[in-house]
Design brief:
The chain is mainly α. 77% of the residues lie in helices and 0% in strands. It has a single domain, classed as Tetracycline Repressor, domain 2 (Orthogonal Bundle). The longest helix is centred in the middle third of the chain and has 25 residues, at 115-139.
Length: 192
C-alpha cells in the first residue's frame, strides 16, 4: 500500500520527467497520473491542478537553485571570485539536476502570456535579481560597471544557460573547467 507522501513524490517525479521531456503544455493530467501510477483525483487532491503540480516542482527544485545562486551572489569585494561562485553554482546545479535544468530553460522562453511562463516568473525574476544585485554591489568598487548591472546579469545568465543547453543536448560538457572557461570569456567583456 502506498502512503500519501509516496503519491505526492511519485506525482512530482512524473511531472518533472514529463514536463522536461515534452514541455508543460504537451502533457495532460491523465498522462501525469498514469505515469505516477495514481488516479486523476489523487493528483487533484495533492495539487489542485496541473498548474499546481508545476508550481510544486518549481518550488521544490527551483527553490534549491535560487538558494544556491543567492548564496553565491554575495559580494565580498572580489568580482572574479564572486563570478566564479555564481558560474559554478549554475553549472553544478545543471549537472546535478538535468531534468529540472531543461525544464527551467524551456519555461524561461515560454510565451509571456502562457501559464508556464507565469508559473516560472518568480524563479526567473529571483535568479535575475540575485545576479543583478551582485553586479550592482560590484559597481560601487568598479566605475566602469556603473549602470550596467541589468545588462551584465542578462549576459551572465544567458552565457551559463547557453552552456547548460549545450550540455543538455549532448553537444558539450558543462564541467567545472568549461564553466571557468565561460567565466573567463565573460570577464574579458566586462573588464574591457
Amino acid at each position: 500500500m502506498t502512503d500519501e507522501g509516496d503519491n505526492r513524490t511519485l506525482l512530482l517525479n512524473a511531472a518533472l520527467s514529463l514536463f522536461s521531456e515534452r514541455g508543460y503544455e504537451a502533457v495532460g493530467v491523465a498522462e501525469l497520473a498514469e505515469a505516477a501510477g495514481v488516479t486523476k483525483p489523487t493528483l487533484y487532491h495533492y495539487f489542485g491542478s496541473k498548474r499546481g503540480l508545476l508550481d510544486a516542482v518549481l518550488e521544490a527544485k527551483g527553490g534549491a537553485l535560487l538558494e544556491s545562486v543567492r548564496a553565491a551572489a554575495r559580494y565580498d569585494r572580489d568580482v572574479p571570485l564572486g563570478l566564479e561562485r555564481l558560474g559554478l553554482a549554475l553549472a553544478r546545479f545543471a549537472r546535478a539536476e538535468p531534468e529540472f535544468a531543461r525544464l527551467r530553460l524551456a519555461l524561461s522562453v515560454a510565451p509571456p502570456a502562457s501559464e508556464a511562463c507565469e508559473a516560472a516568473r518568480a524563479l526567473n525574476e529571483g535568479l535575475f535579481a540575485a545576479l543583478e544585485g551582485f553586479f550592482r554591489a560590484a559597481a560601487a568598487d568598479h566605475g566602469n560597471m556603473k549602470g550596467r548591472s541589468r545588462a551584465y546579469a542578462a549576459s551572465f545568465l544567458g552565457t551559463f544557460d547557453g552552456y547548460a543547453a549545450r550540455q543538455l543536448a549532448g553537444a558539450a560538457p558543462l564541467d567545472d573547467r568549461t564553466a571557468r572557461e565561460a567565466l573567463r570569456q565573460f570577464m574579458y567583456g566586462i573588464f574591457s
